[in-house]
Amino acid sequence: MNFSLDSLVTPDEILADVLTETEDFDYRDFTRGWYMSQMQQCLEELSFDTFMVEIDNDFPFPSETSAISLPANAFNVRGIWVYNGSLGVPTNSQIVSWKRGAYSRGSGKSFFAEHKAGQTENPWILPISDTVQSELIWASINNGVVQFSSQAATYSYVHLRYNGTFTPIGETPFVPPFFRQVVKLWVTLEYYRRMRKRNPRVYRTIFKDVYDELYGGFSSKWDTAITRSKSIDTKSANDLKEYLSKMNY
Fold first, then answer.
1. Which among 146, 164, 182 is the end of a domain?
2. How far is CA 59 from the centre of its chain?
3. Are residues 156 and 58 in the same domain?
4. What pLDDT sits at residue 240?
């Protein structure tokens, strides 16, 4: 599937379709901000289901704390590197291994972990020596914070690769064309979901019809959107990734 970045659908285009369906032209029922929020939530859910948005980001190494917070739009870390050179331009780099269960409030020199050098509660697990551990570069992720080992501090920068949402949290800059119909239905469904509580007799049937169109059966708009996103060709995917990388994450 091909698409041009010029064909990205604006929030106003989605909103025009939704307001025509709901007849809430003057925002009597819900504010414009509410509609925008529903678009954002739909894009977030699509991001989680498709994993198609992969973002690369660079940061100065946090030498004082050896810890950085994950970007607000990140939900699946795919890789971590440390490197020297300049920001985004490495002269040398090192893959950072993930150490499960490690935690530290300090600089990473002392930490809690299920397994440390020379220590293990499980006799079947072979412990490593203090010398080997001191040379390892690792990181752990707890509560959205990436904590690095002390050895990582010998590098100047951190490179993160992660899956992210299509837009920064709280913003809705565009909708990919293959998601247009599903975003429109999502927002419309959320409108009827809330109106159903106000007047069940009028809105219950309408809500059910929109729900079935969005989620029902094998030809649902949700499943179709996910299938289409997976068929996007490499050039289009790279263009979309470049577009996302220029945003202020």
1. 164
2. 18
3. yes
4. 61
CB 111 within 8 A of CB 101: no
List the beta strands (DSSP E) in the chain. 54-60, 67-69, 74-86, 89-95, 97-98, 138-142, 145-148, 157-164
Write down the residue that tokens 């020297």 correspond to: 84
In this structure, is the dihedral angle defined by the CA atoms of residues 166, 168, 170 and 175, taken in order, positive or negative?
negative
How many structural domains are present in the chain?
A: 2
Q: Which of these three, 133, 164, 195, is where a domain ends?
A: 164
Range of the domain at 222: 5-52+167-245
Inter-axis angle of helices 180-198 and 221-230, nearest 10: 150
How far is it, in rounded angstroms, from Cα 204 to Cα 213?
A: 15
The reported pTM is 0.63
Residue 229 has pLDDT above 50, yes or no: yes
Looking at beta carbons, which pairs linking 24-31 to residues 24 or more positions away fall under 8 Å?
A: 24/191, 29/191, 29/195, 30/191, 30/194
The encoded tokens of residue 200 equal 């069940």
Whether 160 and 57 have beta carbons less than 8 Å apart is answered as yes
- Say whether both 178 and 190 belong to one domain: yes
